[in-house]
Structures are given as structure tokens and as C-alpha cells.
Amino acid sequence: MGSRLSALKARLSNRLARELFATPLRLAAGQPMVSFTFDDIPASAATIGAPMLEDQGGRGTFYVSGGLVSRWSDDWRENGASAEQIVGLHRNGHEIGCHTFSHRAAGDCDAAALETEIATNRSYMQTLDASIRLDNFAYPYGLAALSHKRRLRAAFRSSRGILPGVNHGVADLQFLRAMPLISVGIDRDGIDRAFDRAIETGGWLIFYTHDVAASPSSYGCTPDLLRHALEAAVVRRMPIVSVAEALRRAGAQVPD
After folding, report:
1. In the chain, what's the furthest Cα-to-Cα distance?
2. CB 117 within 8 Å of CB 101
3. CATH code of the domain covering residue 26
4. What is the pLDDT of residues 98-156, one digit of tens each?
5. Helices 188-201 and 223-235 sit at what angle, rounded to 10 degrees?
6. 255 in a structural domain
7. In 3D, which of 24, 123, 40 has the Cα closest to residue 81?
8. Is the pLDDT of residue 250 over 50?
9. Which of 51, 100, 119, 249 is buried most deeply by CB count within 10 Å?
């Protein structure tokens, strides 16, 4: 009963976070762009996903939980990316983004615990490379927490969830929408429709995934599906940019 009540509260908080305490970002019409983001991150995101983006002249955003680095996960049947791979992503021009250090959901943390999770993650990344800045956040498990939106606004340029849709018109910087690039959740037609919607609205399309493998987990995608999405962007002449670069183009401010 307690776990069900906790899950209900998390869903309610996530739903309220969609509607309240927005940080508006006005996106210019007629300037569609796409970002590919990888969560947690499995090693294959770095060894297979990143080079595929680079082959198309793009760069991605990799939301890292320091506590998962090099650790085996039964979810995707591989280790997390190593410290060396994370530094390699950074030095190749990809963005390193922030999860909580231990991958705790934001709603499971009180204010002090969330601040500790973020500070620990930032400190860990600094030990890998002092030039890594964690400017953008993604909610672990995709679950936002209404009580933390203002706190995250002071710490990050943006926070990304997993509510499907294209960001256009006036978007909420602390609840960015994203489409699953997950083989069990979207097919090629679904990808094409998302791109067409981005072109129609002049919006910012964000994809999220985890592992990239021939037999991916239920959270990841095949190389073929990722390749199709990348080619869809190229055909439509949409720039493939990190979250940080998309926000720079949109004129979003960096927190003090």
C-alpha cells in the first residue's frame, strides 16, 4: 500500500510540474532543430551512439549519473560508460548533462538530498575533467517534482522530462518535452511524424534513449533506428545540436 501511495504521489507531482512554476522560453518560429539525448549512460551510447551523431556532423547530450559510471546494469545488459569514455565524449564536443549522482528520482529527495545529489555529481565530473560543466538536467525516470522546479531553475539552464511532444512557441525550460527514441516505443513512421511536426511548428525536437545495440533493452534503440532519425534530420536540413547549443541558439540564459 505504501509503495502504491508513493507512486501515486510521484505521478501527481509530475503532472502538476507540467502545469505550474514554468520558466518560459520563447522559441523563434521557422528555426526547427533536433537534439539527441542519452540517459544514464550505457557504454554503447558512447561507443556506438556518439560516433553515429558525429558522422552526420552532430553532437548530443549525455545525462550522466556519476554513481552508474562503469557499473553493470541488468536493464541494458552492459556496463555504464567508463570515466575515460565520458571524458572522450566531452573532448569530442558532446555535452555532459546532469542526472542525480545515484540516479534517485527528484521526487524521492527532499531539498537537502537533491542539493547533495547534484553537488556530488558535479564534484565527480570535475575530478574527471575540470572543464566539464553540468548546465542542463534530466529528471531520472522522467519524473519531475513540482517542489523542486524553482530550485532546479537556479541550478540549471533546463530540465528535461519524457513527456512526448515538440517544444515550440513558448516552452517550459524546466519541463522540456522529449520523444522516445526507443525501439519498443516508436517506429520509423513515428520518427518521421515527429520531424514533420517540428518542421510544421518551427520547433525544437528532443529525442531520448539509453543503450544503442542490435538487440537493445526496452529502454534503448537499434543502430538502424538511430540512423533513420539522423538521416531524417539531414534530409530536412535540421541542425543536430546538443541541448546546450539549442538553448544558446534560442537565447536562453545561463544561471548565475
Report:
1. 51
2. yes
3. 3.20.20.370
4. 999 999 999 899 999 999 999 999 999 999 999 999 999 999 998 888 888 989 999 99
5. 30
6. no
7. 40
8. yes
9. 100
Got the DSSP string for 219-245? T-B-HHHHHHHHHHHHHTT--B--HHH
Q: Which helix (H) or strand (E) holds 120?
A: helix 111-128
First vs last Cα of the chain: how many Å apart? 43
Residue numbers of the domain that contains 219 = 9-250
Distance of CA 22 to the CA centre of its chain: 18
Report the number of distinct structural domains present in the chain: 1
Does position 255 have pLDDT exceeding 90, yes or no? Answer: no
What is the overall mean pLDDT for the chain? 93
Q: How large is the average pLDDT for residues 17-38?
A: 88
> What is the pLDDT, as a whole number, of residue 7?
60
- What is the distance between the alpha carbons of residues 59 and 67, in angstroms, rounded to a whole number? 24
Q: What is the DSSP pairing of strand 170-172 with strand 24-26?
A: antiparallel
Is-cis flag, bond preceding 132, omega within 30? no
Element of type H or E holding 98: strand 95-98
